[in-house]
Task: structure prediction
Amino acid sequence: MSAGDEAASRPVLVAGAINTDLVARVEKAPEAGETVTGSSFAIFGGGKGANQAIASARSGAPTAMLGGLGDDDFGRERRADLDAEGIDTASVARRESTPSGVALIVVEEATGQNRISYVPGATRTIAADQARDAVARVQPAVILATLEPPPEALAALFEAGKQRGSVVILNATPEAIGARPFLGQIQMLIVNETEAEDLIDSPVSAANGEDAALALSRLGPKTVAVTLGAAGAAIIHDGETATFPAPRVEVVDTTGAGDAFCGAFAAELARGADPFTAAKVGVAAGSLATTVPGAYPGIPRRDAVQRLLAER
Ligand code: RIB
Result:
């Protein structure tokens, strides 16, 4: 990336979880009451919010994080990870009496698909004032939030963003239903197939991604991206739809792929790209993220994403 590219990008503020991922690789994920023997175990930095912030930073946008960590080893390690990426962590609170977030992840060897249980810990302590202060301090062009912070913090964040004229993107994850109260307040929505289904109450697949995006845009946001796994993403913006198929890659671990999409999408918007270009870049970033084990290690840099796009 040239210095000129960096200068062109305006700040992105990302709100969400910062976790430590405890990851077991197994041949087949266990059913209820079953124990399976895994082949390997690793600890990675994770958390949807942190993954998205890293994706934004590695895409060349000046990036700040709104979040919470405990006063514990995981918290210190994750803050150091974000600092090392050049992410502004001044709005990441350190809580003495609440532990840092942790995710237990099982990844299936053959497909790279995961199953995740996570405990948010200090992410659930993000406060409304903390959100307002972050917007006042960072002056973000783009705000990207998951549903991991408490609803009152999100409401304050979105209101402050609106007052400031920031583009507000909500990634309606992990439990999409929590997005309902905010759909009239945000300009852009990003969901995967399952999250889209939960919000429109009807089946969503690669075959009807654009229809789902249209149905979701009728609920409020004028721009909606529906990520479709290996099929890429469908997007609607100002009533126009498009689908961007994912490049074929060798999938090792899908953890963080959706987050790579969101962070790269936000960073492209911050440098002035239109939402269709941003979605195309996001799809390529998400695909590359599946080729490396672990959340933080898998998130690609902008030059790698641009190379993949140029090869197609
Ligand atoms: O989206 C992937 C992330 O979800 C993981 O890094 C894990 O922390 C979970 O919250």
